[in-house]
């Protein structure tokens, strides 16, 4: 439930920033990072078992984000 709430709230805040503050994100990954940050803040409200599950979920997402993170280095075969 915390994962759904965190992702939804992250999307909502991003949408509000765009609509009301004219702040457009540079990458969709920013929504994911914002959502993870919200979940981390809410973790103090969870029971120990739920905290462990959230930690496992966040670790998996962070590993995936490392693969998706854009790099400044272009491959050699692009001319």
Q: Which H/E pattern describes the elements?
A: HHH
* Span of the ends, CA to CA: 47 Å
Arithmetic mean of pLDDT: 88
Structural class: mainly alpha
Largest sheet: none
Separate helix tally: 3
Report the helical percentage. Answer: 55-70%
Shape: flat
Rg: 16 Å
Estimate what percentage of residues fall within beta strands.
under 5%
Low-pLDDT sequence parts:
none
List the helices and strands and how they pair.
Blueprint: H1 2-21, H2 29-42, H3 48-68
Helix pairs in contact: 1-2
Question: Could you walk me through the main structural features you see in this protein, from its secondary elements to its overall organization?
Answer:
The protein has 79 residues and is mostly helical. The chain is built from 3 helices and no strands. It has helices at 2-21, 29-42, 48-68. The model has no long low-confidence stretch (mean pLDDT 88).
Which key phrases capture this entry?
79 residues, flat, single chain, mainly alpha, 3 helices
Short description:
With 79 residues, this protein is mostly helical.
């Amino acid at each position: 439930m915390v994962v759904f709430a965190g992702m939804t709230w992250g999307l909502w805040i991003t949408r509000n920033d765009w609509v009301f503050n004219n702040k457009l994100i540079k990458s969709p990954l920013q929504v994911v990072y914002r959502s993870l940050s919200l979940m981390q803040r809410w973790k103090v409200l969870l029971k120990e078992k739920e905290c462990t599950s959230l930690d496992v979920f966040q670790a998996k997402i962070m590993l995936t984000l490392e693969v998706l993170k854009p790099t400044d280095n272009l491959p050699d075969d692009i001319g």
